[in-house]
Automatic annotation (TrEMBL):
Record protein name field: Uncharacterized protein
Keywords, in A-Z order: Membrane, Transmembrane, Transmembrane helix
Organism name: Shimia haliotis
Residue ranges crossing the lipid bilayer per the database entry: 6-24, 36-54, 74-93, 105-128, 134-154, 166-184, 190-209, 221-239
């Protein structure tokens, strides 16, 4: 129903939002745990990119092409182009103009990117369409843990901004995305393009920014993150959520 979020969806969104709301307290109170979560999230993000995101972009590309009746070129219908654009944009931006002060352009890009990502998570939860409690629990666990890693990265770059307003913006964006998800169909063209653009950023974060040198990474946490992504994909696939 348009504009209505189910109890399962609301509960899932509230759990996921805890990764934004409680992030700074977790980071301050449990530095060892937050370090583990960052390595875990690196593995989870990498698995998410290769096992979920890339196949999803392929499905979205097919849906857009079939919906139009004919392919009109790479800009209109090849979502991998938008993914590459997101990847290159994030790659080329200088996030620190000086060693101690983040660049305004980098801050703006991060805020926009992860606001959109939070909104897409909200829409994704709504589009699960009551496939069963197992899918909602899986979504809550996977997205919450992944966002803890993302937020750790953002908190290291912008500690004051993240604590003061950034995390609340992400919470608002998630519920805006959830509401939008009740009014648009799954794989809506605008949602598909946004997913592709942000997907490119998620990939480069996992590979370049969030994935540390092997000598410094907690390999066990990293591999558990990858295994979590594999398990989530198996559960999603079995429930028809992919």
């Amino acid at each position: 129903m348009v504009g209505v979020i189910s109890l399962y969806e609301a509960a899932t969104l509230i759990v996921i939002c805890s990764a934004h709301i409680g992030a700074t307290r977790i980071f301050a109170a449990y530095p060892t745990v937050s370090r583990w979560l960052l390595d875990y999230s690196s593995g989870l993000g990498l698995g998410y990119a290769f096992l979920y995101l890339l196949p999803k972009i392929g499905t979205m590309s097919t849906g857009l092409r079939d919906g139009s009746g004919a392919a009109r070129g790479i800009v209109d219908h090849q979502l991998y182009f938008y993914m590459l654009l997101g990847f290159l944009t994030y790659y080329l931006v200088d996030f620190k103009r000086h060693s101690s002060r983040p660049a305004p352009l980098g801050l703006t890009l991060n805020v926009l990117s992860f606001s959109v990502y939070s909104a897409l998570i909200g829409a994704t939860v709504v589009h699960l369409n009551n496939l069963g409690s197992g899918v909602y629990v899986t979504s809550a666990v996977v997205f919450t843990l992944h966002l803890f890693g993302v937020n750790k990265f953002l908190y290291r770059m912008y500690p004051e901004d993240f604590d003061r307003w950034m995390r609340w913006l992400f919470v608002a964006a998630m519920f805006v995305g959830a509401y939008a998800g009740t009014e648009i169909e799954r794989y809506n063209p605008l949602q598909s393009v946004a997913t592709a653009l942000v997907g490119g950023i998620i990939i480069i974060l996992s590979v370049r920014l969030k994935l540390p040198a092997r000598a410094r990474v907690n390999t066990r946490a990293f591999l558990i993150g990858v295994a979590t992504a594999v398990l989530a994909v198996v559960i999603y696939s079995g429930a028809g959520a992919l």
